[in-house]
Specification:
It is a single chain. By secondary structure, the chain is an alpha+beta fold. It contains 16 helices and 29 strands. It has an eight-stranded antiparallel sheet with strand order 8-7-9-10-21-20-18-19, with helices on both faces. A six-stranded mixed sheet has the order 1-2-3-4-6-5.
Length: 694
């Protein structure tokens, strides 16, 4: 067993190797402050036959014992991963995936198991460093070292691994991953920070990452791990050259420049088939049918490489993109609101061949999402869910559960808005936004940000500003690079960076970056962020032209919610013994009533008159009877010495005949009478006098 310890960012980092999980190919126990994870890395020794993608899976196993909790619900054990666990797994997957060799097709699994967790320690972020070490301590081929940090921004100062208390005051909450040379991933949210502040945060994060990686390097000096050799299947170079000789550069360019995603895909597929047929005509006898069939996958890869090089050449050398735009151009955008009847709010955002329909539903307190994970135990009143059906790309696939990608994209769009959503005190509704992706060709998550903003204003949610998002790309060739505004799916797939920025006119609210190159420096980041701002402002102008501010009135289908405050000491009176009083009010007025511990009472119903009636009843029930107050009461009992009048629910006072303006024998039970409180005695008894109606 080996142990290494180091003080990092004000807390102790401890790493253990060789004590547990020794049958894994690589494993490490990482403890930062009071949080501990086990990270294991395993792989199959043989590659997937005929594989053309890298089969990596990353799992983040949350254990409720790690935070001293027993899982809620009927089954008291951990079940399927929560959204938070899936997001943590994606956070670890994205920076390590590009560091595996290109031609490595063995199935690899990285599992992060949480043994103990303190929220201040951001243990999911340390999972990136743990995965890096576990892979490097294993025989699995892995190119380099990677680490991750969480960055906050409090009172003008950047903080590495901020505490939960610091995050409450922070203008920024981002997770940044990278190697010693460059940043590879960013994910997070901000309170309308400037582009300059974001660049400074990323450079600050890079320095912190280098500090962690230096410690990783120190650890690995104690080992001499023999890595698996990748048995790279080879073919004669002449085989590939014969195939490439049949590809006409100009014809391939023209094929790439076919307008429309579906048309372009068909044109490329047809051209690829034509080249294949030509090869069979001219070279099949030379290479033999058996060899050709067995090695055909190499020709497929050669075509994809040629396609990528040609597309990138168009951008770098000719300033042309496959859809005919210049590098800074945004596709045509249309915005619509209020297009679906009966829903509470809707917005349709179309940008080129990407289209998102957002629908808003406003609900009551009972509609909040109860979050029960190791990360949090709370009620969530703003949700943004993202759906990516197969028809959005013209495909046929089975509809299964929500994918990890859908959870990740929805989470990013939600973060773009969440800090601008009005508080429960300002707007007492639970808010759910659903983004339905109807077409997709480039950054449907950023389209979801825009459609959600339109729909929220259409629903009358009092957000003060629109939020828009845009995806940027990057192409590096030798010493030149080009930043692309509003990238297509093909540019994302064949380019070097996917860089998403969401925000208002005032600043950035959400940020995500995934990089496939180690050449992202401060200059590239500055240019990319500045171009993203220009693009974002153009989109915001179009959104404001569509709807400038939230609608003043909610849709008729929205439930009516009225909020009042009562003294905390009166909560018991409203609830009543065994809940009798609150049930009675709910049944009489056909409403739902929610009482917060601080005395806030929400009354929810469909009929305004009944909601107002319930509100008045609760106010009356909790109002104090004081001398001098005037009420219109109801006669409850008539005696020969006077009458008993109920002035508030359950509060009956004595109106002596000497204080009557009318004759005693004119009163009967149920009559209304205007009275003034003369005096209040011990134990809540009080005396009244009659006032004449004017």
């Amino acid at each position: 067993m080996k142990v290494w310890e180091k003080e990092l960012f004000g807390r102790k980092l401890r790493l253990e190797y060789g004590k547990v999980a020794k049958q894994s190919l690589g494993s490490v126990v990482l403890t930062y402050n009071q949080s501990t994870i086990l990270v294991t890395a395993d792989a199959e020794e043989e590659p997937v036959k005929g594989g053309d993608f890298f089969p990596l899976t990353v799992e983040f196993q949350e254990k409720f014992y790690a935070v001293g909790k027993i899982p809620g619900g009927f089954i008291k054990r951990e079940g399927k991963p929560s959204d938070e666990a899936i997001l943590a797994a994606r956070l670890i997957d994205r920076p390590i995936r590009p560091l595996f060799p290109e031609n490595f097709y063995n199935e690899v699994q990285v599992i992060v198991t949480v043994f103990s967790m303190l929220g201040d320690d951001s243990i999911e972020t340390w999972g990136i460093t743990g995965a890096s070490l576990a892979l490097n301590l294993s025989p699995i081929p892995f190119n380099g070292l990677v680490a991750g940090v969480r960055i906050g921004y409090v009172d003008g100062q950047f903080i590495v691994f901020p505490t939960q208390e610091e995050l409450k005051r922070s203008k920024m909450d981002i997770v940044v991953a990278g190697t010693k040379e460059a940043l590879t991933m960013v994910e997070g949210e901000a309170l309308e920070v400037s582009e300059e502040e974001m660049v400074k945060a990323l450079m600050f994060a890079q320095d912190a990452i280098k500090e962690i990686i230096a410690f990783e390097e120190e650890i690995l000096l104690d080992f001499n791990i023999e890595k698996w050799e990748i048995e790279e299947e080879r073919v004669p170079a002449e085989f590939i050259q014969d195939y490439l000789s049949l590809i006409d550069e100009d014809e391939l360019k023209n094929t790439l420049l076919t307008q429309g995603k579906k048309n372009r895909d068909k044109a490329i597929a047809k051209y690829k088939e034509d080249v294949k047929n030509k090869f069979e005509e001219e070279f099949l006898d030379k290479w033999g049918e058996s060899f050709y069939t067995e090695k055909f996958s190499f020709l497929n890869r050669a075509f994809e490489d040629k396609l990528q090089k040609t597309m990138r050449g168009l951008i770098i050398n000719e300033n042309r993109r496959v859809d005919g735009r210049g590098v800074d151009d945004i596709r045509e955008i249309t915005c619509e609101v209020g297009l679906i009847p009966r829903v509470h709010g809707s917005g349709l955002f179309t940008r080129g061949e990407t289209q998102s329909l957002a629908v808003v539903t406003l609900g009551a307190s009972m509609d909040v999402q109860l979050v029960d994970t190791i990360f949090s135990d709370e009620e969530k009143r703003f949700m943004l869910h993202y759906n990516f059906p197969p028809f959005s790309t013209g495909e046929v696939k089975r509809l299964r559960g929500v994918s990890r990608r859908e959870i990740g994209h929805g989470h990013l769009a939600e973060r773009a808005h969440k800090n601008l959503i009005p508080s429960d005190m300002e707007f007492p509704y639970t808010i759910r936004v659903v983004s339905e992706i109807l077409e997709s060709n480039g950054s449907s998550s950023m389209a979801s940000v825009c459609s959600a903003s339109l729909a929220l204003m259409d629903a009358g949610v009092p957000i003060k500003k629109h939020v828009a998002g845009i995806a940027m790309g990057l192409v590096f060739e030798e010493d030149r690079f080009v930043i692309l505004t509003d990238i297509l799916g093909m540019e994302d797939h064949l380019g070097d960076m996917d860089f998403k920025v969401a925000g208002t006119r005032e600043g950035i609210t959400a940020f995500q970056m995934d990089v496939k190159t180690n050449r992202i420096d401060e200059e590239v980041l500055k240019i990319a962020l500045e171009k993203a701002k220009i693009g974002r402002l153009k989109i915001l102008d179009l959104m404001y032209e569509t709807i400038t501010e939230p609608r003043k009135e909610l849709a008729s289908e929205v439930p009516i919610i009225k909020v009042i405050n009562i003294p905390v000491s009166k909560i018991g009176e409203v609830i009543g013994p065994s809940g009798r009083v609150i049930k009675e009010i709910s049944e009489i007025y056909d409403v739902e009533i929610y009482i917060e511990p601080d005395g806030r009472v929400k009354v929810n119903g469909r009929n305004l008159e009944k909601v107002n009636g319930a509100v008045k009843y609760i106010k009356d029930l909790t109002e104090e009877v004081e001398s001098g107050k005037i009420f219109e009461g109801t006669v409850k009992r008539v005696e020969n010495y006077g009458i008993f009048v109920e002035v508030l629910p359950g509060k009956v006072g004595m109106l002596h005949k000497s204080n009557l303006k009318d004759k005693l024998d004119t009163f009967k039970i149920g009559d209304k009478v205007k009275v003034e409180v003369l005096s209040v005695e011990d134990q809540g008894k009080f005396q009244l006098k009659q006032l004449k109606e004017e």
